[in-house]
Amino acid sequence: MKFSLPFLAAALVPLISLVTTTQAAPLRDSLSGDVELVSRELSAREVPADGFVDDLFARARKKTPSPAKHPLSPQQLSQRIQNVQKGQTARKEAQNKKASLNSRTTRHLKKPKTNDPKKMTANDKAAQKSIGQAITTARNNKKAERAKKLESKKNSPAKAAQNKADKAQRRKDRKASGSPPPAPKTPGKKALAKKERKAITPQERKQVTNAFKGANNRKNKLQNLPGRKDTFAVGNNKFSGKDVRQGAFNAYLHQASPVGQANNKNPKPFGNRPYPASHPDASLRSKRPIPGARKGLEHPIKASSHNGYTGSGNVGAGRVILHKDKQEKGKKAKTQVAVVGHDTSRGGDPSDHYLAKHTKRDLLEESEI
């Protein structure tokens, strides 16, 4: 029997709809039942809609460390500043030592005519290679010498055995005499400092940075700030303008919490007291070291120092003085810089201050800076 295509299509449509209806009904019933079950369970728990979000925020708040609420005290800030300056000085000294060693090593070697790789000849490359090899050898020798020196300070096996035997004998004598054992040693200052040392937080780092910026801004506003290559001479002591500028910067940086020994902390007030009437130099009798200046602030100067005086070492003979002249009518007094120092050759009191002779650079040279 033959059937045409239109007849087959017409017969299959009712059959397909019947199968689909009978299979989909149980599936819809099962899904609707599951949805109702989940809805009833959630409503029974009575969980608020934003409960899960609040819980996530609470967990994040516990895990995230809260920022420091209290800033560093003046003493703590001063200690941080001193540590920064000591680190800067140590790095600078290490660079200078390295440069000095390289200079001593290569001073007798042939130098390349140019350092431009494109213009270097074979001889230039050979000279550059010999310089690099010489520097490497010198550094390795320096390291070996330092290691040998450290090794010599350690106890030899024979000395270590002797120390152990002496310790056992002392313990035996102590038991025989009935004397108590020695008290345990207390840790040194360095061990305590390392134990109590804490990493600097971003807030504390910003506070230290702001202290450096503030001191530098105040220094730059001084009325007669000297040039870096100016010179100051008092007695046998000579200082550059850079030394004076560094001293003025340190005076402002450590003003809130002076540094140094307990009996000589700097910066400190400068009285500008007059010389005694019995001074050997008749031209100085009853006069003040800085004419026309009121009381100011003094801080030590160290010649050719990377960071100047930061609280350790000898204070030296030079001082930078930050003072204000007597205020004129209708004008605001500005802070000025002066340099004084001790000079025993003048014959007065060893603690007397004398104004340093200031020599400025040539104006033509100054314009080239």
Features:
9 helices, 369 residues, extended, disordered C terminus, five-stranded antiparallel beta sheet, three-stranded antiparallel beta sheet, alpha+beta
Concise overview:
The protein has nine helices and ten strands.
Number of strands: 10
- Give helix % range: 40-55%
Report the C-alpha radius of gyration, rounded: 40 Å
Low-confidence stretches: 363-369
Largest sheet: 5 strands, antiparallel
Overall 3D form: extended
Q: What structural class results from the helix and strand content?
A: alpha+beta
Adjacency order of strands in the biggest sheet: 5-6-7-8-9
Name the beta content range. Answer: 5-15%
How do the helices and strands follow one another from N- to C-terminus? HHHHHHHEEHEEEEEEEEH
| Through-space gap between termini | 113 Å
> What's the helix count?
9
The overall pLDDT, averaged over residues, is 80
